[in-house]
Design goal:
Helix content is about 40%, strand content about 10%. The protein is mainly alpha-helical. The protein has a two-stranded antiparallel ribbon with strand order 1-2. A two-stranded antiparallel sheet has the order 3-4.
């Protein structure tokens, strides 16, 4: 997962990356999506703000950035879902960000406790563990 660089209007042949509408800076407001690096017309980019997962993963940057409408829908749909493996994408976060290292240690300790919790009737009743 990489931070997407700006591609430039010439790369898109001066067309909206979504609807293919002609974009020229004199007659229409051209909007850049920070998630894709592409340019969009105002109909396809409503200036929605969102975190960019690659910026969080690589730079620990939680700034809200402007994204196109399609990307906003995608980011809303995946919010809160564990889709990125931090260990394989940026393992140095575990050493540089204390909280992530602490969470990793807790997850490891919980996994070590799983055989005991599977046997516990109360844990099953309260659905604390899935077998």
């Amino acid at each position: 997962m990489d931070i997407c660089p700006e591609k430039g209007l010439t790369h898109q042949h001066f067309r909206c990356a979504c609807c293919n509408r002609a974009l020229n800076q004199q007659s229409i407001e051209v909007r850049l999506c920070d998630y894709t690096g592409h340019y969009f017309c105002p109909d396809c980019h409503r200036n929605d703000l969102s975190l960019i997962p690659a910026r969080v993963l690589h730079d620990w940057d939680f700034s809200q950035r402007r994204v196109c409408s399609g990307c906003m829908e995608l980011l809303d749909a995946i919010e809160g879902r564990p889709l990125i493996n931090i260990q394989s994408s940026n393992p140095s976060l575990y050493t540089h960000i204390h909280d992530i290292g602490a969470i990793e240690l807790l997850r490891h300790e919980i996994l070590l406790m799983k055989p005991i919790l599977v046997q516990c009737e109360r844990a099953r009743e309260e659905k604390l563990i899935q077998e």
